[in-house]
Specification:
10 helices, 44% helix
């Protein structure tokens, strides 16, 4: 009796994910396109403009991500790679891969999805980099249910890009099954709207109460003549008072006859203290960015400084972002080498993240040197005894 060979797990071949929804609707393709520039994206850019702390946090993260270099396995090509890294045109007005990555990372944090393109000359050599606006691009799940197809949106519909290998796409914290990512600012619109209401109300209250307004009241006497000319006298008092308070008129005395009282409107009212609610809302915003408050100019404590725990947490955040950007940088470098007919392998090396004070770093080096000296001394003593 022939023995049936048991099928091993490595013999299994899956051409597409089994959890992808399959629809037989002939018009289902209309639901497959995902525009990247939606109302939510416009809202995030409006938040950056309305709340300066959010805008400052985005740029602070872009600065903190640090610099990098591409190390080539072929020593003779290292100078060529460095020259390309520093001189490649970006968006027609900037130069260097670092400039491209800065704009790319800023778009990724704000929108959750970032699009870039490698520009080639007629011979196919990489010559420039371009950060694409999201309103020009739409995404669609590939037919295999796993990849992502990139389409160019236009008035006549969407058309697939001709050279998808030249497109750079990164997403931040995507939802399961989604082709686009989530913005770092997700969850902040509600908190920011409450904060803006408080700030706007404070401005209105200061405009009403801070810009002092007066109530001038003329009370006629009991005689018939005074009551008969009450309107004319009130108009005369109003005219003289307006002339005395006219901007640029200088300090002038107001003299009147009769029972006239002058009071400041709103003098008895107090503006609500906004420090506590504003700080509570700002804490929510700062917590979403992952940055310590003092890095954004918020001195909530007179002795506030970055602790080693905060530095470790922030370093892990930056390392996570570096992990998203490193494949993009590697693709750009490999495209440059292959398009110019060069060989070799590239490696992305980021500079060390330095968040601690220089004094603390110097003290740590001193302690390490002292510990090493003590260990060497003990080792010499043991050798002498032996």
């Amino acid at each position: 009796m022939p023995i049936r060979k048991k099928k091993r797990p490595d013999d299994l071949s899956v051409s597409l994910p089994q959890t992808v929804r399959n629809t037989s609707n002939p018009f289902g393709i209309l639901d497959g396109y995902v525009p990247l520039s939606d109302t939510q994206t416009k809202l995030y850019y409006a938040l950056r403009e309305a709340v300066p702390v959010i805008d400052a946090a985005i740029f602070k993260l872009v600065r903190l991500i640090g610099s990098f270099e591409l190390v080539c396995s072929e020593q003779g090509l290292q100078s060529t790679v460095d020259r390309f890294l520093n001189t490649v045109p970006v968006n027609g007005g900037r130069y260097g891969v670092s400039s491209f990555i800065a704009s790319y990372f800023e778009q990724l944090l704000t929108c959750g999805t970032s699009i870039g393109e490698m520009i080639t000359d007629p011979s196919g050599r990489l010559t420039a980099l371009y950060n694409a606006p999201l309103e020009n691009v739409e995404l669609k799940r590939s037919e295999d249910g796993f990849g992502t197809d990139i389409y160019l949106s236009g008035p006549g519909g969407s058309s697939r890009v001709q050279y998808p290998d030249l497109i750079l796409l990164s997403v931040l914290n995507p939802d399961p099954g989604s082709v686009k990512g989530n913005s770092l600012l997700k969850g902040l619109p509600f908190v920011s709207s409450v904060l803006m209401k408080i700030i706007n109300t404070v401005g209105l209250n200061w405009e009403r109460v801070g810009n002092v307004r007066f109530a001038v009241t003329y009370k006629p006497q009991n005689d018939s003549v005074d009551r008969a000319y009450a309107k004319e006298r009130a108009m005369q008092v109003a005219g003289e008072w307006g002339e005395a308070m006219r901007p640029g008129a200088g300090v002038r005395d107001f003299v009147t006859v009769g029972d006239v009282s002058i009071k400041v409107i709103g003098a008895d009212n107090q503006i609500l203290d906004s420090e506590v609610p504003v700080r509570q809302l700002m804490e929510q915003i700062v917590a979403k960015t992952g940055l310590p408050p003092f890095m954004l100019g918020l001195q909530w404590s007179s002795t506030e400084r970055m602790s080693s725990q905060q530095a470790d947490v922030l370093t892990s955040e930056l390392e996570y972002y570096r992990g998203i950007l490193s494949p993009v940088i590697l693709r750009i470098g490999n495209m440059f080498l292959r398009s110019h007919g060069f060989g070799g392998e590239l490696e992305v090396r980021w500079n060390d993240i330095t968040l601690q004070d220089q004094v603390e770093l110097g003290r740590a080096r001193l302690y390490n040197a002292q510990a090493e000296a003590l260990e060497n001394q003990k080792a010499e003593e043991r050798n002498v005894k032996a």
